[in-house]
Specification:
By secondary structure, this protein is α/β, with parallel strands linked by helices. The protein contains nine helices and 15 strands. The chain has a five-stranded mixed β-sheet, with no helix packed on it. A five-stranded mixed β-sheet has the order 3-6-7-5-4. A five-stranded parallel β-sheet has the order 12-11-13-14-15, with helices on both faces.
Length: 319
């Protein structure tokens, strides 16, 4: 990589922004047409195609499952997103399938139409607590106020794990044991992933503290730093490792890591970043903010063993 490329990556990193593909679902409520707006990270979208007009098979594992279609070397399942969300979608001529690719999974989601792409800052994403109506709170990771309407950002991992017949949490391998009950701070906006990580790490003898956003994680870490200073103790008496998603409302994982590593006290803590879409570009960004390790969500059953390794390396480095 050239020096110029490195500078460009450093300039991009920590901007705390994301691109959202906005789409809609049209339904009928009390006899009246209603349009609801949703969004997903553009980086998770492979392409948008016309609706293949599938008929749900009689043996469908879930009522929202419409069947499979071939696409670019994949045989992908197609899900009627409205049915999964419990909405009464009205079929229309503009129906499309949003084809997503993340966590080594390619899936199509049938919706009423795609509207546009927005570039927004993570601080503009409003956490959903207390703002949702009938939708499952675990399905929505945040809301964005766009002119005259809200875009509800979907947690695709939660949707796919709910449709998966096997228990994703219990499917993780739990064959490692950490000595001394190390303390991990976990930051993730997805309730599904938080539960998976908490289960995985505590089974490996970690003590966990879980927060919803990078902003909450940084506030917690600064409070820990202050407490450690007042009590004359090392910060590792309170936290040994930080484990963070990259995409979160308020503050993303890159910005969290950048703030941590620039801190004279907190910067000694190892940081693991993870995402369902660890591309070369994201990995370069993680490197530029000095993340100690980066991992993709399909490989997160290795999280405990990786955390143990990094904690041990840090202890040896300061010994």
């Amino acid at each position: 990589m050239t020096e110029q490329s490195k500078k460009e990556i450093l300039l991009e990193t920590g901007t705390n922004e994301l691109e959202i593909l906005e789409f809609c679902i049209d339904e009928t409520v009390d006899g009246k047409p209603v349009r609801s707006y949703f969004g997903v990270n553009v980086a998770k979208v492979m392409q948008v195609i016309e609706s293949p007009d599938l008929e749900p098979p009689e043996s469908a594992p879930h009522e929202c499952y419409l069947g499979t279609i071939p696409l670019r070397g994949h045989i992908l399942p197609v899900v009627d997103l409205a049915i999964w969300l419990g909405m009464n979608r009205e079929p229309g001529e503009d129906d499309v399938v949003i084809v997503t690719e993340f966590s080594q999974s390619v899936t199509g989601f049938l919706v009423s139409g795609v509207t546009q792409i927005h570039r927004v800052g993570w601080p503009e994403v409003i956490p959903p607590q207390g703002l949702l109506g009938s939708l499952d709170a675990d399905t929505i990771i945040g809301l964005v106020d766009i002119e005259d309407h809200f875009i509800q950002l979907l947690d695709l991992e939660h949707i796919l794990s709910d449709l998966e017949p096997s228990d994703a949490i219990e499917a993780w391998t739990l064959d490692v044991h950490a000595e001394g009950a190390p303390k991990a701070l976990i930051a993730d906006d997805s309730a599904t992933i938080r539960a998976m990580l908490k289960n995985n790490l505590e089974a490996a003898n970690f003590v966990t503290r879980v927060v919803n956003t990078g902003e909450e994680a940084l506030d917690a870490l600064r409070a820990i730093r202050e407490q450690a200073s007042q009590e004359g103790k090392p910060v590792t008496d309170y936290v040994d490792i930080i484990i963070s998603d990259i995409e979160m409302p308020r503050m993303d994982g890159f910005t969290l890591t950048k703030n941590v590593k620039e801190d004279d006290v907190l910067g000694r803590l190892p940081v693991i970043l993870y995402s369902s879409i660890i591309t070369d570009e994201l990995r370069h960004k993680g490197d530029s903010v000095r993340a100690d390790a980066q991992i993709s969500k399909p490989d997160m059953d290795q999280m405990a063993s990786l955390a143990i390794k990094l904690i041990k390396e840090r202890a040896e480095a300061v010994a």
